[in-house]
Every structure is written in C-alpha cells, then in structure tokens.
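Example record for the data management plan.
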Amino acid sequence: MVFNSFAFICAFLPLGLAGFTYLAGKTRSWALAWLLLLSLVFYGLWDWRALPLLLLSITVNYGLSRAIAGASGPRRRWLLIAAIVFDLGLLGFFKYANFFLSTLASATGLDLPVLAILLPIGISFFTFTQIAFVVDTYQHRANMPTLAHYLLFASYFPYIVAGPILHHGELLEQLTGKDSLRPRLNDLTSGLSLFVFGLAKKLLLADNLAAAFTPLFHQDNPQFLHAWLGMFAYTLQLYFDFSGYTDMAVGVSRMFGLQLPINFNSPYKAVNVSDFWQRWHISLSRFLRNYLYIPLGGNRCGQFNRYRNLLLTMLLGGLWHGANWTFVVWGGLHGLYLCIQHGWQNWVGRRWQGRSPIPPWLGRVITFVAVLVAWCFFRAPDTAAALSVLAGMAGANGLAAVSTIDGPAWALLAAAALVAFALPNSGELLLFTEKRYREHRPAPSLPMPPWAPTLRWGVTLGVLLALALLSLEKSADFIYAQF
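Corresponding structural encoding:
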C-alpha cells in the first residue's frame, strides 16, 4: 500500500484513525496494539512475502539488544558485532547480492547466475533504524523497551517505506510515555494539512515534471539545452517526490498524535554542500555522521584523515541508495565536494580571517549547480548514460533549441522553481515546534501568512486535495521507495 492511493486515502487512513481514536479513549495499550496491527497490515499489503523478513529482523535485533544490555566485558562487544553483521548481511544479500555477482562476473569473465531475490520494501530504512538502536544500547544511550513497543517502533507504517530514518529517542519515548495518545484537534488539522501539501508535491509537481521533461532524455546524446533543462527539471522532481513522501509520513503520524522528525528544510537554498546535507534527508545525514563518520575518527585525527573519512562516509552513503556504481560515483562526488569546501574554508580562515569573499547568493548558485551535476549519476541507469548527459551539459553534443516543451510545462517548471527556491517550506508554514526543526529553520524568503485552521487555508487545502485526487490514477511510484 502507498500513501498516494485511493485505498489508503479513502479506507486505510480514515478507518485506522477512527479505530485508534476510539481505542485511545479506552486504554493506551489497546491503542498501541491497533497501531501495530495497522503497521503490519500496511507493510504486508505492499508485498506479504516480505513481512516475515521484517519480523525476523525486528525479533533478532530486539533479542540481541536485550542480550547486549545485560552483558558485560568482551561478550558485550561480540554481541554488538553479531547484531551489525546480521543487519548488514541481511541488507547485503537482499539489496546487493546481484550487484556484487554482476561486478565479479564483469571483472573475471565468469558466467555467474542472477539470483531471483525479492527486494523487501524499506529494508534500508528499517535496517539503519535498528542499527542505531543496537549501537546506542551498547553505548548505554538507549533504554530497553518492551517487545511490543519495539515492534511498533521498528515497523511503524508512516516511516517504513521511505523514511525518515528513525532514532529511538524520537519515537520510543512517545510510545512508552504516560500521556494520553488520543489525537488532539490541532494534531488532526496540522497533520492533515501537511499530508495534503505532501500529496500535492508528489502528484501535482513531481509526477507532472517527470511526464513533461523525461522525454528530453530519450536520446543517446542530449544536446546542451536539452541536458540542462532535463536535469534542472529532474532536480526539482526528485526533491518534490521525496519531500512529498516525508511530508505525508510526518502528517499521517501527526494525525495519530505522534511526531516524526523533519527530514527536509529547503535544501536548494543551501549556501554550501555541508549546509545542503543539513537540509536534505536530514535523518540520513545524522545517521551517517553519528554512526559512520564519527566512529571512523571524524575530524579528530588531522586534515588528511578528516578528508578520508568524509570520502568513505559519502561513498558508503551513496552505495546505501542503490546497488549500482552510479550511486557510488554520486556519493563520491559529494565526498569530493565536502573535501573541497572544507579545504576552501581552511584557506579562507587563514587568508581572509574567516570572512569568505563569496557572497551567499553566489554560494547558493555554486552549491545548486554542483548538486545538479551529481544528480546526473543518481538518475542515470549506468555511468555511460550519466557521462553522456554531462557531455551534453558541457556543449559537446551541440546547442539545440528546445521545441518539444509546451507552454504548460514551462509554467509548471517555473512554479516548481518558485516553491523550491523562494517560498517557505511546509514546515515553516505549519510552524512545527520540534527542537531539530527550530535549530535548522531559516528565515522565510517571502512573507507568508502563518498557518491556522482558517477559511482561507481550508479553501486552499481543499483545492489542492481535489486536484491531487484527480491525478491519483496516473501517479508514479515514489523514487526513494526503491532504496
């Protein structure tokens, strides 16, 4: 099941909310049991064959976490290693087995078989969520919940398909608290509003951008204007597709009275690549920093090791996105960008006393162009296709006039650019109060009225919802659901 479907919007969500609200008025435990049932049904309706694997992963991680919490000495460390090996082994087999086999076959000339492996939806997200819990348990930074609470935490349906990657401190404390779970009116109105915003991002912007501009890539050697226009449209499409899902996930969870972390904060307004990664897929950036970059040594062991750790972290972060060398190159490019940025900042600190000669507006342009160039590899099916697009962007294939794009497509692109670059994001409009969001919240680029359940906002959201519902039948899958 997916958020952008009639089954979810017209049946699963209203029935789920009605049952949860009724049971929350009775006892907290029954309300949580209902949420757990909804989560397992939601995941099973995507593909029931993947449900046993999800339950196996949760059971093993919970058992090993309890064993770690009660162990001491070398046994504790070996249990941690066992848990991480299990998680990475599961992820490696289902997501990367055929990738490694094909790479080995290409390198050695061996005729290796392609395995018929079903990729469980969301395996990257629930695996990283549980690795963080196991590591924090080992480091005495997590309290051991009951099995029922942990089952719900790891399988919670709003996040399970495409994130955000949960941290136990963000959800388990809400599940194990003593306060009533009964949704408040403000939770329902703000959650529904955010869900509508996300649905509109996905159906009205992302999917229509894909339909209008993907044909520009239907040529072997795209020319200059085709390549730049196609990649600009894809850059916006990817953002609205992924942030749209996250808005819907956070909104649905808010309707149930539970808060998920903000995962996007206007990333294309970033002034440098570090700023970009503090705004794009914030939960993944946090995971990579806390559970990979810092354990590798972070910036504690000199500049050379710092750059090495940045490159390794981003290479592995790229590989996390998919079993293809294009994702490795994409991650490597971002690692290189970060190294260049930190090198530049060190030089500026010595030469210009920390005051960069590059104005913020130019920093935004440079950052956006660098990110757009890297997206070429993220989008392409192979490195040859990515290099062909880059050659077109460099002008190697000629200039070409763009005659295949009609007026409505240009208007759509302009509207998407306005939303991404100039308007406040959905979190700013709905005035979320989560600590992480306050830390990252920028000043709105254009003045907008603060959100409130008024007639004006009601009409606006009603129109967006109606337009989105009219587009449901032609909706495409979420891009990040494949990861």
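Summary line stored alongside the record: The mean pLDDT is 88.
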